[in-house]
Every structure is written in C-alpha cells, then in structure tokens.
Amino acid sequence: MNNVVLGILAHVDAGKTTTAEALLYKSGSIRRIGRVDHKDAFLDNFLIEKERGITIFSKQAIFDVGNNHFNLLDTPGHMDFSAEMERTLSVLDYALLVISGQDGVQAHTLTLWELLKRYRVPCIVWVNKKDLMEASGKSLATLLEDLKLHFGEGFVDFNNLDFEKIAELDENALTEFLDRGTLSKETVCSLIDGRKLFPCLFGSALRLEGVDELISFLSEYISEKKYSEEFGAKVFKISHDESGQRLSWIKLCGGALKPKDTIDDEKINQIRAYSGVKFEAVGLAEPGNIYALCGLEKSFAGQGLGFESAQISPVLEPVLSYRIIPPAGVDSINAMKKLSLLAEEDPMLRIVYNSRLKEIEARLMGQVQIDVLKDLIYDRYGMNVEIDTGHIVYKETIAAPVLGIGHFEPLRHYAEVHLLMEPLAPGSGIELCSACSTDTLDLNWQRLILTNLAEKEHLGVIIGAPITDIRITIVAGRAHLKHTEGGDFRQAVYRAVRQGLMSAENVLLEPYYDYCLEIPAEHIGRAISDCKAMSCSFDAPKDMGMNIQIKGRGPVSELQNYQLELLSYTKGRGRISCSFAGHFPCHNTEKIAEESAYDPDRDVENTADSVFCSHGAGVNVKWNKVPDFAHLDSGISFEHSVPEISHSPKLRSGNIDFDEKELQAIMQREFGEPKRPQIASVTVDFGGSGKKKQTVIKKDYLIVDAYNMIFSWPELKELAKASMDAARARLTDMLINYRAFKNNEVCLIFDGYKRKDNLGAKEDDHGIHIVYTKEGESADAFIEALVREIGKNYSVRVATSDGLIQLTALRAGVIRMSSKELEYELEKTLNEISAILQIPRKKITLADIARLKKI
Questions:
Q1: Angle 61-62-65 (CA atoms, 0-180°, nearest 5)?
Q2: In the prediction, which pLDDT does 471 show?
Q3: Is 84:7 a contact under the CB 8 Å cutoff?
Q4: Mean pLDDT, to the nearest integer, of 53-60?
Q5: What are phi and psi of 613, to 5 degrees?
Q6: 68-74 and 470-479 as β-strands: parallel, antiparallel, unpaired?
C-alpha cells in the first residue's frame, strides 16, 4: 500500500468534519455516518467538541482507497485553534481544502492558503455545499474565478476534466498534450505535487453528492511515496490518553520502528495506530503513516527525530497574554504543575509561572479559546479558574550599540563583565557570543557567562518587558584566583545587561499583524481613513471585481477589534484576515510607558547598579557611575559605525587588589577579632560535688542531599514531574522556614556530577547555603570534604537515603538521617508553627516566624 497523510482544512462552518465523515463512510471505514449537529460525528469525540459543535483538537482516522492507505488528519477550523492546525502542516503529503460554495473565499481561507504555500503542501480543493450555492444563484465558474482572483492560476474543475486547461499550466505538459492529445497520470500528479495544479471538485458532503468522484480522484491522482531506509520522524503533537499516558504523535518519514526500540535514550513502550478514539497496537511501524508512541517523556511538538530537522517557527501565534487565577485554596505552584500538561499539548499556550509576580500566565488567541480552556481545566482537574481580560505582549530592544558593565565585589567575592549589546533585525531574538581573549578570561568563565545570559529572561527599562533582537557579546571580563565563585559572575552578568540597557537608546516593540482587508468599493474611503487612524501601513488598493482589497501591516492593539466595526459599516459584506507579522516599534510608546508607570531604578530584582569593595566592605555604585569605577578597559570605541573590539582589555590603573591576609587585616582593624558564635561553652556542676567541667555545645549543621529529597518526598516528586525548578524552589522554601525556626545552619547540595560543562555554583538564600557541585564532582565527595572541614565546630547531621553518602557520613563520624526522617521533622516543625500562628503551612513567611520568636 502507498501510505499517505491527508490533512483536511477549512474555514469554520465550511463543512470540514462533515466532509471527513462522508469520506470515511463512502470508503467503508465507518458503517454509520455521523453529524456535527447530532453530536455523533466520528472525529469530534471529545465532550467539549460535541457541546460546542466545533473541532478543537486535530485527530486521525484511517481509510483505504485503491492502492492508497490514507492517514486522515481532521484539523480545527476556528481561528482561535489555528495553532493546532498549523502544527499538522509539516507532516502532510496533501491537503484537502474545504470551501463553502455558499460563502466562497473567507478571511480564514486566505490565512490557510498562505500557510499551505509556506509549508509547500500540495492542495486539493473541495467546494462543499454545492446545493446551497446553486440555490443562491452562484455558478461553479464564478467560484473558480473567485479562487483565481484571490490565489492565482492553477485551479481546474476535475468534475468536468479538460486536459487542455491543465496543459496550459506548464510548458512540458503542453508539449505532451500537443503530441498525444492527453496527459499521463504521472504528469498530472507531478503538477499537483509541484503546486502548479490545484484540482477542484464540487459536491455536498451532507447529501453525499460528489463524494464518490472525490474518492475516485484520491484513488487515481495520488503519487506513490518513496521513503528512506534511514530512520527519521517528525513529532507534531503531544497528548494524553484517558489513563494519563503521554502520547507522542509522529509521522514516520523513514526507516522502521518496533516496540522496545530507543529514541534519544528513551524506550518506546507501545506504538499505536489510531482511527477516531480506537487504536491498534502495532508491532512494526511503516514509513508514511501517523503513529502515537508511548514511553517518550522528553519529546515535544515540532521536534525532528533521526535525519529530520526541527520544524520552522510557526506563523500563527497568540499576541495576547492572560493571567490564569486558580480557585481559592489552590496555590499557583500546584496549579502550574497540572497546567504544564496542557502546555505540553499546546506549546503556543506558553503557560509559564511568573516568579516575580507569583502568577500563572498564558498566551491565547481569543474569547472562544478562553472559554474552551476554562472548560478543559475544569473537566480534567476539577479547577474553576478565572482568566483576566488579557494584555498585549510588548517587548523591548535597543536602537544603537551600547556597552554594559557589571561588577560584583562584596567581601571575598569578585567578578567583572563587559558586554557589547547591538541591535538586530526584527524577529532575530537574542544572540549570544564571545569576543574575549582566553588570555584575559578563562574559557570556563566565558562559558559560565554565556549560560548566565541564556538562563534568564532579561527585562527592558521602558515598561519592564522582555528584551529581544539584540546580540550580546562578551568583550571583557575578570575573575579573582581566590575569591571568584560561580554565583559572582551571575550577579555581574545580570547587572551588566541592565546597566547597558539603562545607558542605551531603548525602543518599545509591539506585535503587528499583516492584514488583508476586502470591502465593497463604496466603502474604500472609510477603510483607508480607518487604516491611517490605526497607524497601519497599506499597499495600493487592488480591484477584486465587486470588492476592493487592501493589504498592509498594523498594530495588533488597533486591529484586534476592528472586525466588528468593519461588519457594522459594510453591513456584513466586509472581511479582514490577520496573521502575526512580528514585533516592531510601538506606535504610542509614550502612552504605554505612562500607563505602565514602570520605574527601573525601583526594580530591585533587576538592578543596574554594581557592588565594589571599599575599606573591606561592599559598596553599591549607581549604574551611571559604574564606568568610572570599573577595573577593566574593554577597548571599545563607538566613533565608528561598527564598534571596534579589542581582544586585549587593559587594566585600569589606580585599582588595588587585596590578597586574603590583607582582607583579614582590614576586617580585624575595622571590626576587631573574629568571633565564632557557632561554638558556646557552659560550666556544669556534677551532682553538687563541686567538681565542675566545661562542656562545649556545638551548633547544629544540617547537610541535605537535595535531589534525594526531591525524588523521595511525594509532594516534591509530583512537582518535579511538571517542573524541576518548581520542586527545587519548594524544597528551598521549606528549609528556609525550618532554618529560621530552628536557628541552625543548613547546607542544600545539588549534585551536578553528570552535567556537561557544569562549573558549579554556591549561593546563600535567606540564611541557607546552596551548593551546585561542578561536573565530575559528586555530592558524596563534596559532603565528605565539607564534613571534614566543619565537623570540629558543628554538630553535623547528613540527610539522605543514598547508601554511598550514608557510608561517607558514617566514615566521618557524623549523624545520619534518612529522607523520611527529615520529611517527618520538617512536617512536625511546620505543623507546630502553623498551629501556634493559626496560618496554613504553605502561607508561612519568614516574617511570621520572626513574630513567633518574639511571642
């Protein structure tokens, strides 16, 4: 059999699902034809789809015609779910574009056509509702002319096939027709595959009229596909079955797959071939078919496997961001854990947890998707969430090159970074590179700087929106042999980016649409006037017969609600189609900045100031004074159109480095002899005998094997499945509260032994010490060294269930406790705090614990 993937696409209410039902019924794949209005369609099998009468999720059905085995993909027709539709385009061999004969070419039809052209998908046109079209007085010839007017040449009536009209589309085909008086099947197929010929068939799917002719066409004019023996596949969708099992939907483009095969070190547990809600377990997957794979946990929509590359960036993407508000009693982190499964299924939702605002945010296309998402969350998770009115997703960039300098030098820490920031073309995103000599800064530090740049979404200084379209180049940097730690460069990098932005000419960007407006000729004056008022650019109007077409580009904020106004003044005869064009300079920056009331100087989490060491203490230096205090001269001059980069940064004279002994001398001079509060002594009188003995009481020091806790405690284990960052944050918060109440020392250790190019890091968070071991350094080796260093001054406990680390603790002579024991101790402590303060455990703050200590 010739395996073929056929996608069915349409404007909403064109009869797409009805056409799919007719194809399946007439080909013998289903015994009874269903209807959307009767809520029994074979492919609209979700309750939410049946209730609303629209297709929301793309689904697969299988049918055979002649020698062709078709994988039919039914896609959503509503604009709000077009991202789901676009994801299927990369796996299609052919597209069946359904057009309503009654309505003709609609706004969304224009968008679909542009997408098919972009993905180079051969297209067959099915003009549905022929009976209603003829009843309204329209002819087939008129509709064909309308198609040619909007999309160009190549549309040929295959119900009344004329090979001469096909031959006129291609020089070689014309030669063949003149020689033979007809065209071979291979020539026709070649023209279809090359998108020179777009066959048009007419009928009424509901009445099953013309469906036999469509099936005959699919039997005769589909090319035989050839596939490579090398393995290759495209992942176009992620979903979950009724039992919660993760399904990775692929088109197998080459080679073969069997259960228990591995892909990127993950084993395939089962291969499923779906048709509607039912599936068949497959022992050998053949190329050219659609399958759902069980067992892949790291796959994602758009991923290329084997020789296949990743998909191109989608055209249709949401430009409005909404806040998802969980119901009372459900905290945002737990809600995010559940919603992350939806984010896997629809990446364009961009569901993220904003740690700064402690809110869940999502990108949505429109009101219908909002309503559906709320219903979907309730059906799956029983949560009645609220979704706010949404706001435009703004971004920021810079207009000219600028140098950003960051310095971080509190006592016994040191890092300085100089970053060249240059504007890029719209849509370029953030590019990172280095032009710093390894003679000046070791390669491992440069890699760490690039990692620090990539790990954070850096915010602009106009309204605090994310930055984009900037190339950031490391041009200079300096580390200290003794005092520099991984976290020092993170601080210096963040401050350098921010300092550069504060010094730059900043540009606010807003999302723009490419629009296509069609209005009756008598309304052209009003339409052009509106376009100018909305700050839209436009090309010269084009005559479309009864209508005038205007194409251009304009701000989403102005165009998003224009459809209603257009329908009003054209009395329903005007239409507009929009597609996301990218982010471009905002048309009303001053107004948006004023409404935002964002003050970058007060954003302490994204400070542009640097920290320098003076007289043995860290001193904060304002961003505009940082270049005067910097220890390096980056060697950059802005006198040319392109800044010149010197690879040999020079040390600025007048700065003095202190070694360890000098720093200790400064500290002793300023603050006196060092004190060691962790050790206390008491004098005990034994039984009144008068014999006294001085006993040393050591302060408690708890060392925690972090990942062992995360994967041992049920709450954290579940959280880690959704987000490892969230699990780490939750464990850290619990230990911060525990440490504040117990007044002990806590060291949280994350094992980075197997992470490639991991340089390790150390940082303090509200009194607890957090360590990320570097590549090649295991947690047990670090704990052994730490115990050896602090064991004499502290009473050390090591919390882990790892046998090797427990053996290390035993050798060192310190107390061991299992993950279960620590979990019990934390539970007991937090419950005790909660009972005294009458506050739910998860809402306890450090301020509450401080108040408890006063009580």
A1: 135
A2: 95
A3: no
A4: 76
A5: -95, 130
A6: unpaired
Q: What is the pLDDT of residues 100-123, one digit of tens each?
A: 988 888 878 888 998 999 999 999
As given in the structure block, the two tokens for residue 30 are: 């289903």
pTM, full prediction? 0.63
Q: Which residues make Cβ contacts (< 8 Å) with residue 511, sequence separation at least 6?
A: 319, 392, 393, 555, 556, 580, 581, 582, 583
How many CA atoms are closer than 13 Å to the CA of 688, on its beta-carbon side?
0
The type of residue at 365 is: M
Helix (H) or strand (E) holding 568: helix 562-569
Instruction: Give per-residue pLDDT as tens, 721-767.
Output: 888 888 888 898 888 888 887 888 899 998 876 666 677 788 888 88
pLDDT at residue 790 in the model: 74
Evaluate the CA torsion angle 115, 116, 121, 127 in order and state its sign.
positive
Q: What is the pLDDT of residue 477?
A: 94
Q: b/e for 88-113, b at 16 or more Cβ within 10 A?
A: bbbbbbbbbbbbbbbbbbbbbbbbbb
- With contact defined as beta carbons under 8 Å apart, do 21 and 39 qualify? no
CA distance 93 to 82: 19
Taken in order 217, 220, 223, 228, the sign of the CA dihedral is positive
Q: What sections of 352-485 are H helices per DSSP?
A: 367-381, 443-455
d(CA 377, CA 363): 15
Q: Cα–Cα distance between 133 and 131 in angstroms, integer? A: 5
Q: Collapsing DSSP states into helix, strand and coil, what is residue 198?
A: strand
Place of tokens 């040191």: 414
If phi > 0 it is left, if psi is from -120 to 50 it is alpha, else beta; for residue 529 that is alpha
For helices 367-381 and 332-345, angle between their N-to-C axes, nearest 10 degrees:
110
- CB-based contacts of 259: which residues, under 8 Å, 6+ apart? 268, 269, 270, 271, 281, 283
What's the distance, Cα to Cα, between the start and end of the chain in Å? Answer: 80
Gap between the Cα atoms of 531 and 525, Å rounded: 10
For the record, the structure tokens of 467 come out as 């930055």
Sign of the torsion formed by the C-alpha atoms of 188, 193, 197 and 198: positive
Closest CA to 575 of 547, 556, 555, 612: 547
Q: Are 412 and 434 in contact (CB under 8 A)?
A: no
Cβ–Cβ under 8 Å, residues 349 and 362: yes
Q: Report which of 70, 79, 76 is spatially closest to residue 124, judged by C-alpha positions.
A: 70
Band (pLDDT 50/70/90 cuts) for residue 431 is very high
Count of Cβ atoms closer than 10 Å to residue 26 Cβ: 18
Residues 6+ apart with CB under 8 A from 735: 704, 746, 748, 768, 826
Q: Are 513 and 556 in contact (CB under 8 A)?
A: yes
On the 0-12 / 13-18 / 19+ scale of CB atoms within 10 A, 618 is middle
The CA distance from 410 to 397, in Å, is: 31
Upper half-sphere CA count for residue 276 (Cβ side, 13 Å): 15
The dihedral formed by the CA atoms of 496, 498, 500 and 504, expressed in degrees to the nearest 10: 180
583 phi and psi angles, rounded to 5 deg: -100, 130
CB 92 within 8 A of CB 118: no
Q: CA nearest 26: which of 199, 184, 290, 216?
A: 216
Residues 6+ apart with CB under 8 A from 630: 405, 407, 416, 418, 652
Contact predicate 393/363, CB 8 Å: yes
Select from 383, 382, 376, 381 the least CA-distant residue to 349: 376
